[in-house]
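4.2 Preliminary Data

To establish feasibility before requesting continued support, the project team ran the inverse folding procedure on a target of 278 residues. The structure was first converted into the token representation described in Section 3, and no sequence information of any kind was made available to the design step. The complete token record follows.
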């Protein structure tokens, strides 16, 4: 009888340990909207994910996308367990795959900027009718959706739009005279080299909205979502964590919820949204 009891206890302890190991060895995928070149995104996010692993015990794998449309296709397919996306992406991804916001920057708003080369003599969007404008992608919120909506509704402009994959490429195309103007956002413009920024002028800024959320798909267990959210918030309370988050950039991290982004539904942006190819 004692031998049977000992055997049962051994089996239970082995099963419990195996289950715990399987849980802790789960690797969660993370997708990041490709505002910057791939190498730069990895430099920003790899140290953050290492900190998340240290604080939560979970493992994370960064899955790159070469373009925003590729990222959107992966979102629609719920490829990512966690994802950092633009606010309009959240509305679409919430409808399609149930993604939920966890945290966002409480220290700033997101808005688009329209830049021209300083020596171009263009000082107003009214001078851009019939010109070539570049954008990262059709669905980049501040840089493209809000910008194209305002150029149409406020200025009634007709222009040739080209999409060049990243914000970095937008600014480079304008500097190289490959386009008359380009849409970006203030935070990506701020990250450009000083010598590049000094050659660009902002001639229009869009309305301001709640910035990019870090999100989770609903299939991720709620305790994992909450632990990741709390770890990110904790990072924002230390100097080391603040420095890492500032590179995203997030200036003052705080909790996020879906209501933060509902005002976007009133802007009629679906006129300019382009669904990604399946």
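Position-by-position output of the design step:
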């Amino acid at each position: 009888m004692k031998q049977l009891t000992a055997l049962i206890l051994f089996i239970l302890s082995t099963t419990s340990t195996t289950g715990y190991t399987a849980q802790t060895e789960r690797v969660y995928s993370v997708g990041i909207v490709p505002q910057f070149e791939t190498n730069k995104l990895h430099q920003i996010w790899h140290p953050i994910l290492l900190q998340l692993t240290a604080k939560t015990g979970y493992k994370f794998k960064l899955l790159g996308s070469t373009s925003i449309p590729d990222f959107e296709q992966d979102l629609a397919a719920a490829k990512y367990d966690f994802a950092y996306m633009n606010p309009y992406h959240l509305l679409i991804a919430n409808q399609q795959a149930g993604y939920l916001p966890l945290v966002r920057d409480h220290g700033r708003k997101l808005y688009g900027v329209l830049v021209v080369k300083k020596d171009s003599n263009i000082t107003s969007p009214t001078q851009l009718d019939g010109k070539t404008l570049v954008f990262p992608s059709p669905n980049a919120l501040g840089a493209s959706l809000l910008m194209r909506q305002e150029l149409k509704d406020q200025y009634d402009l007709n222009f040739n739009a080209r999409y060049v994959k990243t914000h970095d490429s937008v600014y480079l195309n304008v500097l190289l005279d490959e386009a008359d103007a380009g849409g970006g956002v203030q935070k990506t413009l701020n990250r450009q080299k000083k010598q590049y920024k000094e050659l660009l002028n902002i001639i229009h800024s869009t309305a301001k909205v709640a910035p990019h959320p870090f999100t989770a798909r609903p299939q991720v267990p709620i305790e994992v979502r909450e632990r990741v959210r709390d770890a990110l918030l904790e990072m924002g309370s230390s100097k080391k964590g603040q420095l890492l988050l500032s590179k995203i950039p997030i200036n003052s991290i705080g909790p996020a919820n879906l209501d933060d982004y509902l005002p976007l539904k009133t802007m009629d942006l679906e006129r300019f949204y382009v669904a990604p190819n399946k």
